[in-house]
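Structure tokens please, single chain.
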Amino acid sequence: MKSYWKFAVLVAVIVGTLIWLAVGGTAGSMTYYKTVAELGQMGNRAEGKRLRVGGDVEPGSINRKGGEVSFVLVQDRRRLKVVYRGTEPLPDTFRDGAQALADGRIGSDGVFLASQIQAKCASKYEAKPGGGQHPANINKAGA
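Here you go.
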């Protein structure tokens, strides 16, 4: 009977450790998606928290200097200056007017320091003007 309790305690310790690792791992990697407006409403509560902020890249705001890229995210007439100093190259879709997500932290000066950028060019995913299919793809009746 004694060996049964030792086995039960060992199993409980292993299961407890796995749960602790799972909870600790997900809590450290959780990021909340906020809009530029929502981030502005958070005020000082946003400082130091790891966040993900989304908005549109303001045309003409992208400035590359060495390994640093700065730009402005806009949404609903709100602006957020973002500085990216990551090691990964920026996505090909990152350009003026693109929708972008910046992952990082906001500094006390109000500048968002991003460690990762994701971008999607809205025009790339829209239907081509004319709305029709390519003539070679139209299935002709009676052919």
